[in-house]
Amino acid sequence: MRSVAVALVCVQRATVTGMTNPAFGDLSLRDERHRSVRLARTLWSVGTVLCIALALFSYRYLLQVGPRAPAILANAFAKLWLYLHIAGAATALLIAPVQLLPALRRRGRPWHRWLGRAYLSAWLLGGAGALVSAFGSAAGPVAISGFATLAVLYIVVNAIGWLRATQRRFVEHRRWMIYSFAMTFAAVTLR
């Protein structure tokens, strides 16, 4: 996502100066920029659909409906901590893609702030639940250490991102929250 943003900035600067790219013949850099924007929107849309689908699929554990994996239910901490993790993490999955919308950050700052608070609250609960429930996993020591490390890193990354926002260091805040989204998206990519 960051490389797309850097490419967009380079393309925008070249378009303003009137430069064209000879490698594409008659295509101007403006056309390249439009392609990059379309690609970014397409990737965001696919990621958003995946986040929503996984979040809704995960809520079945809380509602106790539909198929549920016996290995997950066999977790020694499934009664409280696993459900806390699912509730928080699934909610964060629903909020995260919206927070990445540039229009929301530019024109809807109060919404961005309130959704950010909800996102951090959800992941504070989800991260704490993940950390404790990681140790009840029946998947073995490698999986336990991986889940626990991800939970700790997630809490730390979100704390740093929140701290940067309160310090009004928004460039750094954005970078840390992109890291946070990447860890949130691990729920999609690790399945």
Structure in a nutshell:
With 191 residues, this protein is mostly helical. It is 80% helix and 0% strand. The protein contains 9 helices and no strands.
Name the features.
191 residues, mainly alpha, 80% helix, 0% strand, globular, disordered N terminus
Biggest sheet statistics = none
Counting structural domains, the number is 1
| Distance separating the two termini | 21 Å
What level of helicity do the residues show? over 70%
Q: Uncertain runs with pLDDT below 50, 5 residues or more?
A: 1-20
Along the chain, the helix and strand elements come as HHHHHHHHH
Q: What fraction of the residues are assigned to beta strands by DSSP?
A: under 5%
Number of strands: 0
Distinct helical segment count: 9
